[in-house]
Amino acid sequence: MAALAAVSERQKAFELLRARLSAKPPALPVEGLIRTAIPELDLLLGGGFPAGIVATLEGKTGCWSLAAGLVARTTRRSLVAILDDGSLYPPTLAQAGASLERVLVVPVRKAVAIARAADILLRSRICRLVLMPAVALRDVVWTRLASLAHRSGVLLIVIATHAGAALQSAAVVRLHCVLERIITHGQRGLWGTIAGFDLCVDVRKHKYLAAGRTACVRVGHEEIFDAALP
Amino acid sequence: MLLCLSVLRQAQDDSGEIMPPELWEEMLDALDAVSPLVDDVRPGLAFLDMHGISGDAPMWIAQTHRTLLRFGCALRTAVGANKIAAWAALHVADGSRCEPGAEGELLAPLPLSLLEIDPATIERLRLLGIERLGDLARLPHGPFVRRFGAAAASWHELARGIDRRPFVPRGHAVAIEASIFGEGRAADETQVFFALRMLLARICDDLERCGKRAGALRLAVELEDAEACTLDVPLATPTAHERTMFDMLRAKLEGMTFAAAIVGLRLQALQLEEGGEAQALFCADDLDPQRVAVTIARLEAALGAGISRAQTRDAHLLEERFTYEPFEPPPRAMLEKNQTQSELVPQLRLLEVREVPVLLRGGEPAVVDRQAVSQCVGPWRVAERAYTSSPLSRDEYDVVLENGTFARIYRQGSHWYLRGVYE
After folding, report:
1. Cβ-based burial of B124 (10 A; exposed 0-12, middle 13-18, buried ≥19)
2. Which of A122, A203, B199, B261 has the fewest CB atoms below 10 angstroms from its CB?
3. Is the dihedral of CA B366, B371, B377, B382 positive or negative?
4. Which SS3 state, helix, strand or coil, does residue B375 take?
5. How many CB pairs under 8 A join A and B?
6. How many CA atoms lie within 13 Å of B256's alpha carbon, on the beta-carbon side?
């Protein structure tokens, strides 16, 4: 009984400590925040992504749409690098407002090549934002990339359906996107258009803010939404 | 006084052959014997500044002919107080001279084409009864400029013999190079980099002494097995900065392997330009084109693939709506803020095209790849190359599957394919 009580005490103490840590996270550095141009997301992140970190956008749908918004915002003043495994579709990126002439497209398919390209880009500091697909890399590689991002002040966004354990620990911010609903405009068939979708974005990890916060983000063409929604 | 020189290749009248740039450069170099100031207008046409050159117009013309005799080209020369006067005198007769103050008189009977006005404007002027430069010179300046635009102000002045175009002397080619040969062999990259640093130090000293910057480098590598290779390294912006050049060369060399030890290196500075590099005072956010170029070279050496940027274009097929072109380091001016409105739009991700099983209900996809379709819009027909031997016709659909996948599929013939997913 005494042993059980001790375990329970320890459990309580642990819960208390966790609640305290969640309530008082370290101060978010205001300088160097990279705004996303998505008001809901900026609010969720306390102003934007901190510069010089590894962040993940996880989920099946919506990650690249959010990333495109971030690219559009960043290319207003800086260069952005995208490590492309062949699936990048530039016309929709341009529709999101990204200046394609400021986007370096680095064609890479193998995991090692992706890590190498990210390494070179982070060390060079020519881009403010580097986007890469999640690949299976060793813990030490993710740690190195995180350290390089920190030293160079470059935001490294990793897009993943599911982040592996190594990536989870290297990431300072982890956002998870879930498709809430699809918004269609017009009738089914030829005269219909899929106007966009609503995403539920939740913070799974944030070094400076409490995790577990969520926001709803609408992805799609504004003018079609206006027509589609009552 | 200016000497106008027009050179034609002997065969030009028959074949329409234009002056080869190399031959023209050689002729311009030879003209340094006539005047040190030569304005190279275009291949075949140059002006020589004869102020302070001893002799008179006939002597200058004779000397020019003597100098260019060995090239065997047809040559016309004339002298005038400014460019238009010399140019008009050349049209009147070879070896003629336009005295200062007589420009208007000389120009009056000449055709409008002398001013290199576009044919459409010449035609408009002809309809108004203006056929000669004299007619143009007699027009009132203000109304003429208001009717024909800002360029007309210059035509009107030129027709009256007033030429404000500047005389731009050509730069002189200077060869700057350094080499190491027969001083041992380098089998290790650090030895090669050390030698390169030495060569670059010499080259940068020479560039500094001449007040020039290099726009490109050429590295010739000689190997122990008597093989040789040449590496052309363009620099993003002309520079005389040793570190920048070294970074660029090293980035290029990182992707190369040599079959034998290196026994000789020759480094040459090319595309020399005058003056220093433009620097911005408040440049904290500036992009350094050299750094971008070095990074791209490093990426290309590491990955073996070109770094590109995308460009969109109008096309019907999804995969033809964009192209890739080599990424060019943006100039400093790109720092101007781009005010394009950003908008969150679904991003299509292209997948390897694969055939998928599709069940139809009422003519619409109901099950795609064993997933029920919850929403479907389309079809949008794309028909391409209808008049060729391989016509292409597709019906494209956007579908939302029950597992949440939002995809673009298409039917081609009797087969269905998955083209991409919106993420």
Report:
1. middle
2. B261
3. negative
4. strand
5. 198
6. 19
**Closest by alpha carbon to B232, among B212, B258, B256?**
B256
Q: What residues of chain A lie within 8 A of the CB of B298, using their CB?
A: 120, 124
Q: Say whether pTM exceeds 0.80.
A: no
Asked if B395 and B403 touch (Cβ cutoff 8 Å), the reply is no
Report the interhelical angle of B151-159 vs B141-148 (nearest 10°). 140
Residue in chain B nearest A94 by alpha carbon: B312
pLDDT digits (tens, 9 = 90+) for B41-80: 888 889 999 888 888 888 999 989 888 888 888 888 999 9
Q: Write out pLDDT tens, residues A157-182.
A: 999 988 888 898 899 999 999 888 88
For residue A84, the cross-strand partners are A107
- Interior angle at CA A32, CA A30 and CA A34, nearest 5: 100
The angle subtended at Cα A221 by Cα A218 and Cα A225, nearest 5°, is 70
- CATH architecture group of domain A30-178: 3-Layer(aba) Sandwich (3.40)
pLDDT tens per residue across span B329-373: 766 555 455 555 667 888 888 888 888 898 888 888 889 888 898
Beta-carbon separation of B287 and A190 below 8 A? no
